[in-house]
Specification:
This protein has about 80 residues and is mainly α. The protein has 2 helices and no strands. Helix 1 runs antiparallel to helix 2. The protein is elongated.
C-alpha cells in the first residue's frame, strides 16, 4: 500500500511539474515574440508588458520546489 501511495504522489508531482513547464514555455515564447516586436516597433507600452511578464516568469522559476537546487545553463546542461 505504501508503494502505491508513493507512486500516485509521484505521478501527481510529475503532472504538476509538466503543467508548470508547459505554462512557463508558453509564457517565454510569447515574451520573446513580444520583445522582438518591441525592437521593430519601439512600442513603449508593449515593452512595459514584456518587463512585467519577465518578472512573472522569474517568480515562477524562483517558486520551484524547496530543496531543488538544480540550475540549468542556456544549453540545457547542468550548471554549477
Amino acid at each position: 500500500m505504501t508503494s502505491q501511495h508513493t507512486d500516485s504522489s509521484f505521478d501527481r508531482d510529475l503532472e504538476g511539474l509538466q503543467i508548470r513547464l508547459v505554462t512557463m514555455s508558453r509564457l517565454v515564447d510569447a515574451a520573446i515574440g513580444n520583445a522582438l516586436k518591441v525592437l521593430e516597433t519601439r512600442d513603449l507600452e508593449l515593452s512595459r508588458k514584456v518587463r512585467r511578464d519577465d518578472k512573472m516568469i522569474d517568480e515562477m522559476d524562483e517558486d520551484r520546489p524547496k530543496g531543488d537546487t538544480t540550475a540549468y545553463s542556456a544549453t540545457g546542461t547542468d550548471a554549477v
